[in-house]
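Researcher: Let's walk through a ligand-bound prediction step by step. First, I give you the protein sequence. Second, the SMILES string for pyridoxal-5'-phosphate. Third, you return the three-dimensional complex as structure tokens. Ready?
Model: Ready.
Researcher: Here are steps one and two:
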Amino acid sequence: MQRTIFTGFYPNTCARDVRAAFGFLFLPWRWGKLRKGHSIGRAEKALATYQSQSRAWTYDSGRTALYYALKALGVGPGDHVLVQAYTCAVVVFAITQLEATPIFIDILDDFTMDPTDAQRKITSKTKVLIMQHTFGAPANIESLMIVAQQHALRTIEDCAHSLGAMYNGNRTGTYADIGMFSFGSDKVISCSRGGALTTDDETIAASLDNLQVDLPVPPLRTVIRHLLTIILFWIAKPLYHLRIGHVILYIAKRLHITSRIMTDREKRGQGSAVYPRRLANALAHILCQQLAQVDTLNEHRKTIANQYSRLLMPNKRFQTPLAAHESSIHLRYPVLCEDPDRVHRHAKSRGILLGDWYSCVVAPCDIAADATYYVEGSCPRAEALALHSLNLPTHRRITMREVSRVGDMLSSL
Ligand SMILES: Cc1ncc(COP(=O)(O)O)c(C=O)c1O
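Model: Step three, the predicted complex:
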């Protein structure tokens, strides 16, 4: 029986991260450093240096980072924020938490914001434009920045998928007023849950410094849960194909030992009891370890993506919109097909768990409809792409043999 191939499920974790998590949990002299410590400053300095920006701030998640980016840019009740359709609901919730209104912009065939549709939907209430570099492929930053400048909008780059991606010789995240990052479990690098902002603008920096003053550190139980989740996924995944791993993760979930990407309260659009918070020191320590590997992980992703392109190009039943995208870091390899549900089922029967970013315009699909503010039909291309999307894994555990397994599975459909 072959091992399960995962797309998500903490794919970036390495033995060093698991050792660090064990250390923080089981060595009593490290307990004092679980929530506060010098790793937070170290992670912020390392990220600012990597991004060639003057400052960086860390948070408990990308959604908290985005909330503070919007706050620092003065977004408040009644303001409009341009955000692309084909995104994660927590992006939208960062806007609605400030009582601002998300204005959904349709996307291009590369899953990023269409500058023409953005131009069309700007009104006197529009304050901020968020550009998302979906799957690690840089958006059309040049055109979007022109649109923003013409209407004096402030800008944020959502680099949750694109840490390390280059655009015209500079990293994504360095063009807008603020760069925003996520270090959640399935992102470019991860520390279970985390996020960050970077900027070169002194006024924004002063504002973010002020906002940081009252931001509490996460409760101890949240930090412990994140560290346990790293360990449990590490133990369970190699046993998944034997059902044991499945059972371990199921029990851990039922007992609320493992952390969830989105809570039921969040899915109803009612915010979260745990956020917003700072990044915990123990997670910042793991983030520092991961940051040192980002370029290696991205090189691997590109190699794997090229191989998928070679395998899938002759197969007329699948479209590969980012196959020729040279600047993408290919966090995941998106594929369009007629019936993604059928492919997911077929893949699962062969021990392959494919990704579903994004099978809804505002994902995941079980979000309360009125919580997203999305108006059906307002972004037709995003709706069409969401209907046909699935994604293949490119992370560090994927070998050329596993690419062949995925390729064989797809051609046997
Ligand atoms: C495009 C995008 N931006 C932001 C976020 C928020 O990141 P986090 O899960 O760290 O809050 C996500 C989450 O999946 C995302 O997909």
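Researcher: And what stands out?
Model: The chain has a mean pLDDT of 96. The pocket of pyridoxal-5'-phosphate is lined by residues 61-63, 87-88, 90-91, 132, 158, 160-161, 182, 184, 195 (CB under 6 Å).
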